[in-house]
Design brief:
The complex is a heterodimer of chains A (355) and B (379). Chain A has 2 domains: 100 residues, no CATH class; 220 residues, Brix domain (Rossmann fold). Helix content of chain A is 31%, strand content 23%. Chain A contains 10 helices and 11 strands. Chain B is built from 4 helices and 28 strands. Chain B is globular, with a radius of gyration of 22 Å. Classes of the chains: A alpha+beta (355), B mainly beta (379). Chains A and B meet through helix 5 and strand 11 of A and loops of B. Chain A: It comes from Phoxinus phoxinus. Chain A: Keywords: Ribosome biogenesis, rRNA processing. Chain A: One of its GO terms (cellular component) is preribosome, large subunit precursor. Chain A: It is found in: Nucleus, Nucleolus.
Chain lengths: 355, 379
Amino acid sequence: MDSTELTTSESVSKKKGKTKNLKRKPKPDKAPVEKMDQAEVEVTDEKPVSGACFPPTFSMSDIKNKQRRHSMFLKIKEQKRKLKLELKKKKKKERKALGDKAPPKEVPKTIENQRIYDETTVSPEDEEVAFDEGTDEFAAYFNRLTNPKVLITTSDRPRGRTVRFCDHLATVIPHAHVYYRRGLALKRVIPQCVSRGFTYLIVINEDRKVPNGLVLCHLPDGPTAHFKLSSVRLRKEMKRKGKSPTEHVPEVILNNFSTRLGHSIGRLFAALFPHDPQFVGRQVATFHNQRDFIFFRFHRYIFKNEKRVGIQELGPRFTLKLRSLQKGTFDSKFGEYEWVHKRHEMDSCRRKFHL
Amino acid sequence: MAAKSQICSIWLGSETGILKGVSLSKKQAFNFCEMSCLSRDQEVCVMAWGDSHESEVLVGSVNGTVKTFSTDKGIFTATRECGDPSQGRFTGLSVTDSSLITCVESGLLKVWKEGCTDTVEVNVGNGICRMQQNPSQRHRVATGGKENPLKVWDLERPDKPIFTAKNVAHDWLDMRVPVWVKDIGFIPDSDKIVTCTGHHQVRVYDPSTSQRRPVMEAQFGEYPLTALSLPASQDTVVVGNTHGEIGILDLRKGLVRGCLKGLAGAVRGLQCHPSLPLVASCGLDRFLRVHSLEDRSLQHKVYLKSRLNCVLLSSRELESSSPDVSGDVEEVKAEEDEVWDTMETVTEKTKKRAAQTSETVVNGVDGKKKRKLVKTNVK
């Protein structure tokens, strides 16, 4: 037992000298170790001691008593936390002391800023892509030849939240009409939509009363995007929501659609809203792409003074994830897909993003 | 332009009407087109080699013109009107000795003799999806399309097809099986013809026998097949579908030998190298991909900015652009090896990790993978 006590005191002295070392091996803090804890001290000491009675490959999970193991675990966790806080405080102090000379703060590593470079990233001066986009299916909208007119429908026999979600979506998108599906096939709905001048068909799919899919079909000649729909929050379920939105045309914000595929998807969303937002309404619809998930938010803003802006969420809010982009109008059997999300092939790297 | 076009070994036609050349040895891609006068009605539908030396590329566009591109000079040398856009886009283009064969969607097959204006016209039926020429007997062509079965025509006697396929027997519900031939290939050294359909079947016909129904039928996937190509090695066929799946099928029993991975969108063009075990594919995802048929690995991947409609491989080696540059390529390889030698730090790290998990085998595989990934980054 003598030898073990010796080692503990050594480790304590070390702690006082260097706190950095400690970070790796958290050990009991108090120098005079209580008799109850002696066994534990031996346990935590990882140094191979000549007279130690534990095998060298000891870990905490080897303690067989569950209560003891648990208390031990909690203790170590608490110690780690304390150490971390101390270190943080110290660093802050150092930074303050250094003042302007302080080294720049390290940027945390995220999978987004470590993103693998995508060769399809669109540069604004690329002639060929500009031509391709200038003559694609949305060219008529962006040349201000057409005005959007949107039909919103659901899968057959919608229940509960899906119906309300459609209604909310219709308040967000101007010139949107919600129709009951009436068991009609989409391939028969599409020609009727085209003949009545609709430019978009939105179909919300529902599974067990929960909306879970969204098909966005640009008319008259495509493309069609299929999204997974998740985290739908209706207006009623939101805290601190604003008064219900007005009928003004909202502004649209599209964030982070950088690749060629992302551009196509961004244009698909942009063409959903009419030109010339009515700034009187002070409403903004945002499609924010982050890690291939597209977050939709609908806000009202107000300029409090020159610097500060207040925003108020109006709802609904939901998240989309692209499953496929198909050329032409909806035809899941014979249509040609421009992009299909293949989970096992494409999701092998977490730092690769497609939008 | 001439220097650029001479090193290119793969030619591609895009939906924006641009002819693209790719040199895999130099890892470069070029556009052979005036960027100022682009238009969608120049969209490339079909491409073919103009002569046996592969010095001319024939490009058929949507607006009914066939342009001749000289790979030596790097410019378009001739343009001729071969039909009007009202009859549909081109579905096939090929060359026999001194004459040009074109076929459009409405089923009008024309033979344009060199120098004279009158043409031989054959009506091969509506809804044509593909016209292919028999590479060994160059006056024979095969056509097929939607509700239009496979027909083989002898252009010296164009009044009647020499072979018309018969639809397969009714299915288990006693319903007629719809016909939709999407692509055709002639199996070399035999009379057999292989077709792929919009209902994901691959069928082999044998005109030399009296049987007009397919002698072999196989299925691949569940989406319409769009393109087909026959590799140099016998008994296999490579097919691609609208979901970006490419399969290698065995023609003896009709079993899937393997799939090629890495595609994101529909396959529009597929061509195997005439001698090497390589296959090039292009499609709506705007990438050209070259796969090896032996280990089915992705060899090259090039982003070409427009949706691609067709691909044309030259019969020389893809890696070396011309015989005198082959030394150069080896040098590049040596340089690459040096680069890999200097990257020891990475491998050490992975080794450490491997030591922790005591799985050295996996580590080796990982290292290889990284290497390949870097190699395939052409740009």
